[in-house]
Design brief:
Aminopeptidase; alpha+beta; globular; 5 helices
């Protein structure tokens, strides 16, 4: 079982998903830009959301993934999602999306720095990987601002919506981190 912390950073809080998040989750995922770049189904239904939240909770118990809701500092407004999937040999992958109203404010970069610091420092992950669509320049900028290094193009790497797609691979190693990128606290929300 993986300990499920709340991670607090500059203007955001990351906490494990809860079933109470269902309505906000489904509402945020009606934005066509999110499924455009991800494996998230379109349209996204309440059934999809409930299944995701149940899988997320089970993944924490199984210790194979850690899914976080990205929230405003009060912990009340959903800004997005970020998750880490753990692989063998101290490697993991990370993925994220940001709600339409929260874009352009550095939310994804701050969340990525927080979760990367937690995974690489607290959990002993050595290598954190992130892939983006070659045309998703916004996500590539987030990765670079968070300190990830571009490694190259992976041809026909992922199947998304029934099509094999190229991806750009980024990585962050534990040795790449600086102290300023670490989570500032891991206390429960009040």
């Amino acid at each position: 079982m993986l300990e499920a912390p709340d991670l607090r950073g500059d203007e955001i809080v990351l906490r494990p998903w809860k079933l109470d998040d269902l309505d906000e989750l489904v509402s945020a995922l009606q934005d066509p830009e999110i499924p455009r770049w991800t494996r998230i189904p379109e349209p996204y239904t309440g059934t999809d959301g409930r299944a995701f939240l149940e899988r997320s909770a089970q993944s924490w118990i199984d210790g194979n993934a850690a899914g976080f809701a990205i929230l405003d500092p009060s912990g009340k407004q959903l800004l997005g999602s970020i998750g880490v999937v753990f692989h063998e040999q101290s490697a993991a992958s990370v993925g994220y999306w940001v709600a339409r109203d929260a874009r352009g404010r550095g939310i994804a970069t701050r969340a990525l720095r927080l979760v990367a610091g937690w995974a690489l420092q607290s959990l002993g992950v050595e290598r954190l990987e992130l892939v983006t669509d070659p045309d998703n320049t916004s996500s590539q900028r987030v990765a670079e601002k968070a300190g990830f290094q571009r490694e190259g193009l992976l041809r026909r790497y992922l199947e998304i919506k029934g099509m094999r797609r190229d991806c750009v691979m980024f990585s962050l190693l534990r040795s790449d981190l600086s102290a300023q990128e670490l989570p500032t606290s891991s206390q429960p929300l009040s």
